[in-house]
Amino acid sequence: MKGLSIHLTDVCNSKCTFCIVDSPYMKQDTVMRRRISRFLHEHAGQDYEAVNLHGGEATIRKDFLEILDEIRELGYPTVFLQTNARKLARMAYAETVVGKGVSLFIVSLHGATAATQDGISLAPGSFDQAVQGIRNVKQLGASVRTNSVVCKDNYTELPEIVDLCMDLGADVVNISALHTSGTALRNFWDVTPRYDDIRPYVAEACDRAVARGVALRLEGFPYCGVPGYERFQIDWEDNKFKMLYRSFVMDDYEGHMDDFTRVKDARCGGCVFTDVCGGVYKEYAEMIGWDEFHPVTQRPADNPAPVS
Question: At what angle do helices 33-43 and 64-73 cross, to 10 degrees?
């Protein structure tokens, strides 16, 4: 997959306690339409297979539907939308968005209950809206990839979150390690769980997805943090995204993440996955340390490589 990825807005209609772009504290948007349009025009006709849109919450831009029109007019084959799906709870709006070319909805679902999700998002009703939004776009024939970020408030519920995602018809279930930046860094000790604590719940959640035959992806985890599940790690060599983030262009999004957001310890050199593992988010390593991480010395026979 060769795609473009565009950060459409800094602001959001939720205030998640671990928001990596720090949306709860953004007073005004810094993303200008002309910069988005220039980026789209500069890369049109260059064999990009999709445009991935995200924020903040992309759907709350007043010109969001116009941006979808522009993407289609420039000939990009499809659009992926990362969203909390709150606005998609209205079927008429969901129909409009699907009709304008969005084929994959990457929906944040961080709780198996309203109490958990609404507590994380600090937005009463956001759980019910997300669930209805997923149902609506699935009914319209679009694909859904759920994304659940593992944090202190939800890790014991993770297997039930995955069950809910599958019950709602998710085509892919994505489980993400907490990226300790933005609002997550402000709230570090309140939101950041220990890997030793989350490991059995992540494993159970993975096992439930595998048992039901639903595609599973793990994102942002050091390989030794989820031993035995290495084959479900996203293979970024097969997923290349060039990203516009505010005024900054990342030619290789995952390469940027490896270079600037994650770190490795000397012990990582002895791990069989060192060439594909990005390491540990640097704030986690600085504030909690390395005692939980141990190099994988033998590649499991049944987990030969990450998935694409």
Answer: 20
